[in-house]
Amino acid sequence: MSDQSNSDDTPKKQLEVSGSGTGGRKRTAVGAGDGGEGDAPKEFPGGSEYPSFEILPRVVICEPNELVRAGMRRMIPFCNVIGEATEGTQARELIRMLQPDLVITEIEIDGFDGVELCSQIRDLSSRSAILISTHSYNATKFFHRVMRNGANGVYLKRTGRLELVRAVSDVLNHRDYCDETISRLLKQHPSQINSLDEGLTEREIDVLIRLDLRNREIADELGIQLQKVENVIFSILKKLNTETRTQAALKAVNVGFKLIPVMPSRNNITGTTEDEEMAWAHAEAALKEGD
To answer: Is the dihedral of CA 8, 47, 98, 115 positive or negative?
Structure first.
């Protein structure tokens, strides 16, 4: 999508949208910090902590949890939430009918695999930005797959309002977004862990930190052939002087690597994960702020 010059000094980026009530008009969007250092974005009436848009971006939220959906609505008052879905078929129909500027969707949504849903959103509404909203386990397990299938960013629900505002602003301004926690886990490097620098290649590290997954899952996530994964694991075992993948994984962990996907810790009484409890707490706080 092309940039459009403006009479003022603040750079603005085009967001082309078609659908109900838009008439196919072009919209300019300015996100927080978009103008660079010293260039303040225009303020949304609710406060300077929000990005500003000449026309409120139209958003569809696909999220099975009612509390989280309600909290998200309150967290992004600079957007117009025009539709909500709790399962895949409903999500597809809303996106097809409404042609939103942005789709915020969970990876785990009834009826569709989240990776497949990203591809279908691209077919249904090619102009819609896609922000995955999920938990640490799914974010670290499916990141590359959802990004390859059309997502523009991955947001962790446990991080709350400020990070959601940043994520929404980035993807609407055509910038890929990834939570910093996820970025650090995906970009582990042996130069940071000298005791295990055995000449491992970048590809070998990508596979090493995913040894908790099955070979087919590693191949799907990294977008490589299954035979390639098997060959890389053989090379890892040889370089680390280990006989099994379990031994290799333990050696990696002992010197500071973190295996992904990140396994969630659960409340012993309720069985819910820490990520879920944090997401609910942020949603409840957002709803109380609006009362």
So the answer is: positive
Amino acid, single-letter form, for residue 78: F
Find the Cα–Cα–Cα–Cα dihedral 130, 134, 140, 143, rounded to 10°. Answer: -10
Check: pTM over 0.85? Answer yes or no.
no
Question: Nearest-5° angle of CA 119, CA 123, CA 125?
Answer: 110
Give the residue among 254, 256, 252, 276 at the shortest CA–CA distance from 264. 276
Whether the upstream peptide bond of residue 264 has omega within 30° of 0, thus cis, is no
Residue by residue, pLDDT tens for the chain (291 residues) are: 444 444 444 333 333 333 333 333 333 333 333 333 333 333 334 445 788 888 899 999 999 999 999 999 999 999 999 999 999 899 999 999 999 999 999 998 886 777 888 999 999 999 999 999 999 999 999 999 999 999 999 999 999 999 999 999 999 999 999 999 999 999 887 555 555 656 888 899 999 999 999 999 999 999 999 999 999 999 999 999 999 999 999 998 988 899 999 988 888 888 899 999 999 999 999 999 866
* Paired tokens of 160: 């709350």
Q: How many residues does the chain have?
A: 291
Question: How far apart are the C-alpha atoms of 57 and 76, rounded to whole Å?
Answer: 10
In whole angstroms, what is the distance from residue 50 CA to residue 172 CA?
Answer: 13
